[in-house]
Amino acid sequence: MPLTITIPTALRQYAGGNSEIEVEAKTAGEALEQLTTRHAELRKHLYNDQNRLRNFVTVYVNDEDIRYLNGPDTPIKDGDTVMIVPAIAGGATTAENVAAPHASTAEFPQLSHEEIARYSRHLIMPEVGMEGQRKLKAARVLMIGTGGLGAPLGMYLAAAGVGTLGLVDFDVVDESNLQRQIVHGTKDVGRLKIESARDRLSDINPLINIETHNTRLTSENALELFREYDIVADGTDNFPTRYLVNDACVLTGKPNVYGSIFRFEGQASVFWANADGGRGACYRCLYPEPPPPGLVPSCAEGGVLGVLPGIVGAIQANEAIKLILGDGEPLINRLLLFDAWKMRFRELKLRRDPACPICGENATIKELIDYEEFCGLKPQPTAEQLAQASGQEQMPEITATELKERLEHGADIQIIDVREPHEYEIARIPQTKLIPLGQVVGRIAEIDPERETVVHCKGGGRSAKAIEDLKRAGFTGRLINLKGGITAWSTEVDPSVPKY
Amino acid sequence: MIKIDEEQLTEIKRHAEVEYPHECCGLLIGRIEDNGRTRIVSATYPVKNSWEASPQHDRMLIAPIDYARAERESSKKGLGVVGDYHSHPDHPAVPSQFDLEHSPWPTMSYIVVSVREGQAAELRSWEIAEDHSKFNEEEIVKGS
Lengths: 500, 144
Prior knowledge:
- The complex is a heterodimer of chains A (500) and B (144).
- Chain A is built from 19 helices and 19 strands.
- Chain A has helices at 28-38, 40-46, 113-118, 120-123, 129-138, 150-160, 193-204, 222-227, 239-252, 275-278, 283-286, 299-302, 307-325, 371-374, 383-389, 400-408, 421-426, 461-472, 485-492; strands at residues 2-6, 20-24, 57-61, 64-65, 81-86, 88-90, 140-144, 164-169, 209-214, 231-234, 256-262, 265-271, 334-339, 344-349, 397-398, 413-417, 432-434, 452-456, 479-482.
- Chain A has an 8-stranded mixed beta sheet, with helices on both faces. Chain A has a 5-stranded mixed beta sheet with strand order 2-1-5-3-4, with helices on one face. In chain A, strands 15-19-18-16-17 form a 5-stranded parallel beta sheet.
- In chain A, α6 (150-160) packs parallel to α7 (193-204).
- Chain B has 144 residues and is α/β, with parallel strands linked by helices.
- In chain B, 22% of the residues lie in helices and 42% in strands.
- Chain B is built from 3 helices and 9 strands; from the N terminus they run βαβββαβαββββ.
- Chain B has an 8-stranded mixed beta sheet.
- The longest helix of chain B is centred in the N-terminal third of the chain and has 14 residues, at 6-19.
- Chain B is globular.
- The interface between A and B is large, with 39 and 52 residues.
- β6 of chain A pairs antiparallel with β4 (60-62) of chain B, so a sheet runs across the interface.
């Protein structure tokens, strides 16, 4: 088919000064092929070294962009016009959403043959390629926590070739961690988590650096630590640290790759106040205030599906990698909600809060604060101290050993277990009656006030609450709290009762 | 080399100030002479910044459809698109790596104007090396 190709002014000198060139072709691709065969000089200005159209070159057939038709295979009809036009993009400085502070590609470290072999599945994707892999190698990611979220996060970042991983944790591997914290193994129980994680991550990828920080993250050390890294990934399980990570990220200008989990539900986002020309929301824009202490239980209290942190932590790894590559669509100003029970993802839009106390227009927080206090977790006076202060009788307590002895001597004691039925399924003290905390006042009649009563739960907290509730409801009998709950019973009296 | 009138330079600066703190962008209409080495600008052609997401503060995109329209309209007068301009709010009038990767051809001029706190500051013009490897600053010859 005869057709006309319109040459933009800027390219005419490579096309013999012509503004229009007639060719015969059946498709748009064929037309360009003919054009560049006839005017060879045009070729390098339209195609890159890999013989693909340069990213800014757009081809229109009549008034349609061929990318939205059939690309180079777009058919040509008699008399059609093909037009070559560029899309021109630009931008100030290097302020892309690229986290690594390197101005130009030349500064990224080269890859060894060993690395090229290892990362081949990345390298063959143009979205990563050599340049992206070198950016990954140059990147420094700080992981707060090496637990449920930190496990997949660290393993995937290590495998992906993130050059330097910083690990912050102060905890020790416990048996109850292994159900979800897959970076640690059974042989690691009792070891420092950062050491166990370091060994596993170096086994996955010995070509990366791992920097361990055996410390609790605090307002004193956070800023100094964060400044050393490009990206901070929050894998913490408590509110004070979450606010601390957020505030320290805002103050140091680092992106905070956030994940959180509870029972069957997870959240993920990228909080980065500096993103999008200073329009990124931070964690405080989403949650200005922490929930009241005790309202949201931790995983230790509320439980968590073991797979859940695997999914959420892997999402965090994915987001961190995109931030390093400076491409794709990161979770900036988007909160991803995941329900593993229903298997549903939802997404909420986030906005920078102009009144945010740390990233807003008139920010009042200029330095890190006391986050325990902010979250209402300053050690409160205990019930005992309060009782003593007000001249009341102290709550009577009994240790597991004492209880065992008294039972053996035939004491007439009724034991009330105020845990939940599913906990009772896991472990129980013999000869006890189960009345969950929430029902204890309603079922007060089932407790004989004439007999001595020992109340117990898992650790002693809920049983103390039950005793207070019962007294307030007018229970007159003698109530004694089992110190340390069934956990202490297992330790001191009967190891055959499993701990959970 | 770029030949451009004071009037057009003023238009570019004004456009940059109006769009501040966002980036402005536009095309330069005129003729290319001297084997692609000289641009003679006779008009500016302001274009809507088509960068889709929010970071207009430090991004600009001239959509191909706008480029095509400018080329078509000016061809009636025997002119064409010979370059583009854009602003760098609170950054120097130096093209970035991103500019380099997204600017088309060595025959064109690339004007960058820096805007500091809402006021247009330095204005410089650049051309891309024949092998697309870097920008070279070019001389601005002012007309009447």
